[in-house]
C-alpha cells in the first residue's frame, strides 16, 4: 500500500473514530510505527489532523469531545502514571468527588484497587466510574451519582447534576480537563460539563486536576477553573520544561508523575 492510500485510510478512521493510535494503525496496515508517524506528520502539516502523543485526533476535536471509548485508548501509559500518583492524595474514610473523562476513570480504577479506598464515599458524575464501584465485590465503598444529561464522554451534566452537587460537601475533587491554557486555566469543549465541574469545585475543600502533558498543546471553548482556584495539578514528566516553569508560577502545586519508562530506566541505573 502506497503512502497516499495509507493516509486516506488514516483519515477515514479518524472520521469514524475521532482518534487513532499509531500502534493500532501499524498492526492494521502491516507497516512500521515509523511509517505511520511519517504519514501522520504529513497529514498534520496539511492541517488535516492534529498529532497527539501516540497517535492523532481530528482537527474538530479541539471544540468537540471525543467519545469515551475513543479517549480511553489514548495516552494510556501517561494516564496510569498520573492515576498512581493521585491515589496518594486519598485517605481511608475520605469523601471525594471524581469528575468525568478517561484520566479520572483510570484514577478511580487504581484507587479502588488500593488500601486507600477503605470506607470512602465517592460522588461522581461519571457513569463509567459509578459502574466501577457497582462492580466491586466489597461493599466498603459508597457511590453517589449526580444524575443529569449524558455527554459524549459519558458524563452527567446540566442543572439536575449541578443541583445535586450543590447540596453536598467533599474533602477533595479530582477532575480531568480537555486543555490547559497558560495563563488562563483549564477548559472543556462542553459548556454544561464545565459548569458541573465548577459546581464540584465549589463543594470541595481541595481541587486536584489530573491531566497529561499533551493537554498543554490543546485548546478548547469553556473555562471551568483558573490556576489560582486549583490546589494541585498532577501531570506526567513529559511536560516541557518551559511549560513546567510557567505552570509552577501559576498553581499552588505542580506534581510530575514518572512514567513507567522513566521508572524502568531508573531501576536499570541502580
TrEMBL record:
Native source organism of the sequence: Gardnerella vaginalis
Span of domain HTH deoR-type: 3-58
Protein name (record): Transcriptional regulator, DeoR family
Keywords carried by this UniProt record: DNA-binding, Transcription, Transcription regulation
PANTHER family in UniProt: AGA OPERON TRANSCRIPTIONAL REPRESSOR-RELATED (PTHR30363:SF44), HTH-TYPE TRANSCRIPTIONAL REGULATOR SRLR-RELATED (PTHR30363)
MF-aspect GO terms: DNA binding; DNA-binding transcription factor activity
InterPro entries attached to this UniProt entry: Carb_Metab_HTH_regulators, DeoR-like_C, DeoR_HTH, NagB/RpiA_transferase-like, Tscrpt_reg_HTH_DeoR_CS, WH-like_DNA-bd_sf, WH_DNA-bd_sf
Gene3D superfamilies on file: 3.40.50.1360, Winged helix-like DNA-binding domain superfamily/Winged helix DNA-binding domain
Pfam families: DeoRC, HTH_DeoR
Amino acid at each position: 500500500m502506497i503512502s497516499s492510500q495509507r493516509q486516506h485510510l488514516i483519515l477515514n478512521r479518524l472520521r469514524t473514530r475521532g482518534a487513532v493510535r499509531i500502534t493500532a494503525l501499524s498492526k492494521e496496515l502491516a507497516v512500521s510505527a515509523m511509517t505511520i508517524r511519517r504519514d501522520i506528520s504529513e497529514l498534520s502539516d496539511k492541517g488535516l489532523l492534529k498529532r497527539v502523543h501516540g497517535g492523532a485526533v481530528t482537527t474538530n476535536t479541539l471544540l468537540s469531545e471525543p467519545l469515551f471509548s475513543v479517549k480511553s485508548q489514548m495516552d494510556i501509559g501517561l494516564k496510569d502514571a498520573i492515576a498512581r500518583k493521585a491515589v496518594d492524595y486519598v485517605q481511608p474514610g475520605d469523601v471525594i468527588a471524581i469528575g468525568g473523562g478517561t484520566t479520572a476513570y483510570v484514577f478511580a480504577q487504581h484507587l479502588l484497587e488500593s488500601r486507600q479506598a477503605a470506607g470512602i464515599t465517592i460522588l461522581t458524575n461519571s457513569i463509567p466510574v459509578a459502574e466501577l464501584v457497582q462492580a466491586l465485590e466489597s461493599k466498603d465503598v459508597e457511590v453517589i451519582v449526580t444524575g443529569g444529561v449524558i455527554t459524549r464522554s459519558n458524563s452527567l451534566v446540566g442543572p439536575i447534576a449541578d443541583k445535586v452537587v450543590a447540596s453536598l460537601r467533599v474533602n477533595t475533587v479530582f477532575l480531568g480537563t480537555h486543555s490547559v491554557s497558560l495563563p488562563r486555566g483549564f477548559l472543556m469543549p462542553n459548556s454544561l460539563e464545565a459548569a458541573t465541574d465548577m459546581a464540584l469545585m465549589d463543594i470541595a475543600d481541595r481541587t486536584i486536576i489530573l491531566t497529561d502533558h499533551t493537554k498543554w498543546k490543546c485548546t478548547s471553548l469553556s473555562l471551568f477553573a483558573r490556576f489560582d482556584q486549583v490546589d494541585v495539578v498532577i501531570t506526567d514528566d513529559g511536560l516541557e520544561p518551559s511549560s513546567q516553569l510557567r505552570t509552577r508560577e501559576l498553581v499552588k502545586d505542580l506534581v510530575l508523575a514518572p512514567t513507567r519508562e522513566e521508572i524502568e530506566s531508573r531501576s536499570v541505573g541502580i
